[in-house]
Amino acid sequence: MNELAERVKEISDQNVYSCYLCGNCSAGCMFTDEMDTLPHQVIALVQMEDKDALGKNTSWICASCFVCSVRCPRGLDVAAIMEALREIKIRERGFRKIDLRKIKDIEKLPQIAITAAAQKFTW
Amino acid sequence: MEVLYYPGCSLKNTYPEFEKSTYAACEKLGINLVEIPEWNCCGVVPSLATDNVMRHLGAVRSFINAQEKGKEIGTNVVVTLCSMCYNVLKRVNLILKEQVDTLKNVNDFIDDQPDYVPELEIVHFLSLLKNVGFDKLKERIAIPLRGLKVAPYYSCALLRPDRPKGVPIDDPENPTVIENLIRSIGAEPAEFPFKTECCGNYHIVFEPHIVEMRTKKIIGSARSENADVILSPCPLCTYNLQHGNETLDRSEQVPVVFFTQLLALSLDVKSHLSTEIENQIMKKIGGKKFV
Q1: Domain A3-92, CATH 1.10.1060.10 — does that match?
Q2: DSSP string covering B106-141, please?
């Protein structure tokens, strides 16, 4: 297993080599319009230890709705793999995806939205 | 019936009508909700990283308080209303039941409270109603909402993921529990192909256009099925759908209500709906305005 796949497994307990790239996750994903790379393509990049996997916006657009995880014929938790890719970046020293102080209309937003965003985008 | 109750932040702040309508309905149905003392934030989204148990701690602290209160009143059932809370609490509880090491880890870390013994059962209010029985519920209905077409919007958190096994309250691909509730209160469920789709979740904070893209499709689908209202179990979905409504022309909007509000209305107790929406509904079912 390559180092990147190893790291993903460590965080998410998912083995990307189980994936046979059928594309079912990408077919069901509701957010592909916003993604530069499809979810199964990102998994293929991890299989090939292509560090570009971490630079794609796919994992950041993923909203953890778990449609992919429910439908994966190989039983992979695809949303957890996306979380692992986010976490690898988030845990890098000095990395910052968002600035919580710059939220627009913070008084209007429900606190669950802000807490959820903070959970997914920050350390 | 006496059960423990975990409210969560949205029911106390953003959407008090969700909680108030539930209390009103519960009183009528003989369900006594006992609020967990000093409950705290559930964390909203479950952590998917298996190597980081820190994010489970908020939920576990509430479990401990629930466990102690449960001993007093003699129950181990915790009911939640918010789907986000349900998903996190259910998932963390199942993880602690399955993983002895994780349980030991969190119990060792939380040294200012008693240990958590994973014997609580986390139940969503819809499952509680299902257990009471929709047939029995039907007998209690005072104002059947006849002629009202309701789009059941399940969204994600009640149905997915199915790991650990036991999180979904119904079939993840074709759930029916909300339709059954809608029928039992006398209304008609809309065939609604977007009923399990995602509203865009927390993207409302930094990328609201993603939420707008999603909710326009969901509202449009409900609209094309001639739904009078969208029934939501989730405070975040409700907020996002209302945000979506605001970007649409008035003629294209579909009001969003909590399932407990329609339940309360049909039980002839205070629904805490806005006057405008309640009037719309009463007009549709040909009833008098209920004060």
Answers
A1: yes
A2: HHHH--SSPPP-S--EEEEHHHHHHHH-HHHHHHH-
